[in-house]
Amino acid sequence: MSGPVWVLPSRAPAAGLCQGGGCALMSRSTKFQQIVRGMNQVLDVPLTVKIRTGVQERVNLAHRLLPELRDWGAALVTVGNGDILSYEDANRALQTGVAGIMIARGALLKPWLFTEIREQRHWDISSSERLDILRDFTHYGLEHWGSDTQGVEKTRRFLLEWLSFLCRYVPVGLLERLPQRINERPPYYLGRDYLETLMASQKAADWIRISELLLGPVPPGFIFLPKHKANAYK
Prior knowledge:
The protein is mostly helical. It folds into two domains: 5-80, no CATH class; 127-215, no CATH class. Helix content is 43%, strand content 5%. It is built from nine helices and three strands, in the order βαβαβααααααα. It has helices spanning 29-42, 62-72, 87-94, 105-109, 113-119, 127-145, 149-166, 194-199, 204-215; strands spanning 5-7, 47-51, 76-79. It has a three-stranded parallel beta sheet, with helices on one face. Helix 2 (62-72) links the parallel strand 2 (47-51) and strand 3. Helix 3 packs across helix 5 (113-119) and helix 7 packs across helix 9 (204-215). The protein is globular. Its EC number is 1.3.1.89. It comes from Camelus dromedarius (Dromedary). It holds the Pfam family Dus. Residues 76-128 form the DUS-like FMN-binding domain.
């Protein structure tokens, strides 16, 4: 392994298969301790843990768990995430006195977000620059899975899942106010060129068209439905 390993007590029921393996671990101290200590013993990289503030609304547990997690062997603990999508969001989070911040979905919507935070600016990235990022992604996919039919379609599936998030980004030059909020779903709009309009589409058929620009035609009968299956997608 080459990086930190995360234990993620999440609110999502599927994460623990409805068997207490998600955020319920926060109220199961013995089980949680066994998992953290056990993983820490077998890993040769730092163990980091992401937790919520609590399991129930307005009943916080995190402040009690933090010193225990340190004693159990966690090298770093992240409490939730701040839905960071701009350098302003990052600055606001850092002003609370935390040692660092975690970027989650924001990196799926804006993979150039880290540049914006580092340079403290909004990047009005062009559609061609965004396509170059996608091209790099497909290159890495083909390098990893192979450039045969199976490798191409494996890469395409991951690309399409990513495009189902990327389409939520609204170009800086088209926003009425800055910054864009992470939970804002943009209305239909025309981009400054055809590619920008295509990238803004909420339709899976258009994501497939983008994939064909990079990976060639899809196989006959190809169908794609994003894993999160949002009702807005067709």
